[in-house]
Amino acid sequence: QVQLVESGGGLVQAGGSLRLSCAASGRTFSRYAMGWFRQAPGKEREFVVAVSWSDWRTYYADSVKGRFTISRDNAKNTVYLQMNSLKPEDTADYYCAATKTTQPMSILLAAHDYDYWGQGTQVTVSS
Length: 127
Description:
The chain is built from no helices and eleven strands. The chain has about 130 residues and is mostly beta strands. The strands form two sheets. Strands 2, 4, 5, 6, 9, 10 and 11 form a seven-stranded mixed sheet that branches. The protein starts with a strand and ends with a strand.
């Protein structure tokens, strides 16, 4: 069982930055593929970015490429999402997700690929 706790959300003006954190419990965090998803009001949850557990391979949604950066610190059981040049359309609840995998280079893009989810943290970008 893995528990995920997100933090770092808040209100920011367009063009600003935020860094989200996702702290995970569990001793084998390093064997978990991780991802961030977001859900805006009235919209479906959408993929933002994913990272493999072995070689830090990453994949970004086109909408955030070049502005967001995912990183992970396996020693601290934490995944970060650095969000720069934020836009009003980035406003959403952001969720961290994890799943254990034996494939060290797996990058998982679909929500149904993930077994564990955090409670979400709200990000609001004002224009």
